Amino acid sequence: MNSNYIAPKWLLGGNAQTIYPYFLNPSPHVAFRRERWELDDGDFVDIDWLEGALNKPLVVMFHGLEGNSRSHYALSMMNQLREQNWRGAVIHFRGCSGQPNRLPRAYHAGDSMEIDWMLRRVLHQCESQKSGMPFYVIGISLGGNVLLKWLGEQGGQINKLITAAVAVSAPLDLAAAGKALDSGFNQFYTRHFLSSLKRKALEKHKRFPGLLDAKAVAASATLYEFDNHVTAPLHGFRDADEYWSKSSSKPWLQHIQVPTLVINARNDPFMPAHVLPTQEKVSPMVILEFPEQGGHVGFMQGIFPGQLRWLPQRIVEFFKRYEYL
């Protein structure tokens, strides 16, 4: 399969590539089996499993900001796995599975300790099944940033844990992404995210009086303001600047020691092309793929109304390189 993405002529621009998939019925229904994991701190996370053959690979996906197993990219990916008879799982970050999480904290773009626990939990369950099959991981947008940061932090320690990884439309430089989202047409996306984020934060304030400055949260008009008033204080950061600086995955790309594909469109409205890394700045284990078109987790293909096939096919193609190693 040709890995080069070519955008359809009827769909132009990063904004169109990004918005359109949300209004498209991307894939047939996926029958998930939900499992709840109780966490040591008293909270929980939900995992939606796609059943498949035990002698086939397992693919775990981490979703993007305010995403879930019903996001267009998750459905298209899981349907691709189903065609391969592979097993799949979408792990929801705290508070993203349709039910509020129990604790004041939520999730954030640098929460690598959280996904470390999650992935090791998956591995423990799979080991009990004695499948011995490849274990692949996908991170989308925010989930991609967390995944890449974790991969870099772990270095060579994870070579025996996971087989390969893919990050799609990850905001590798959170400060650059935040500035991009808080300007121009991109404020459309900011309002979309803030609507959900602010609602959840204000619900937490009601459950935990005094936790947040409710007026400041309600007045937040940018992601910077929201992260400054909510994300940073809830997760131990001094402010949004420290959160963005310490959570960005870009500095960790040079330390990754497992085969990893990083896909970012150069017209992604969330991630300016001029801050994308060059091959010399990343580990030899990292493959950078930066198509000119694709938007933010868009990558539509074909004649109108288009299909969301290129991205899942490209990911599976990459994973199959390492299926029998």
Tell me the CATH architecture of the largest domain: 3-Layer(aba) Sandwich
Number of helices: 10
> Mean pLDDT score, rounded?
91
- Report the C-alpha radius of gyration, rounded: 19 Å
- Beta-strand share of residues: 5-15%
Q: Quickly give the structural class.
A: alpha/beta
Pick out its properties.
eight-stranded mixed sheet; alpha/beta; 13% strand; globular; 325 residues; 2 domains; Rossmann fold; single chain
What order do the helices and strands come in, and which of them pair?
Layout: H1 14-19, E1 33-38, E2 44-50, E3 58-62, H2 72-84, E4 87-91, H3 112-129, E5 135-140, H4 142-154, E6 164-168, H5 174-181, H6 187-207, H7 214-219, H8 223-234, H9 240-247, E7 260-263, E8 286-289, H10 310-320
Structural commentary:
- The protein folds into two domains: 14-172 and 249-320, 3-Layer(aba) Sandwich (Rossmann fold), CATH 3.40.50.1820; 174-247, no CATH class.
- The two termini are 20 Å apart.
- α2 packs across α10 (310-320) and α3 (112-129) packs across α4 (142-154).
- It has helices at 14-19, 72-84, 112-129, 142-154, 174-181, 187-207, 214-219, 223-234, 240-247, 310-320; strands at 33-38, 44-50, 58-62, 87-91, 135-140, 164-168, 260-263, 286-289.
- An eight-stranded mixed sheet has the order 1-2-4-3-5-6-7-8, with helices on both faces.
- Helix content is 36%, strand content 13%.
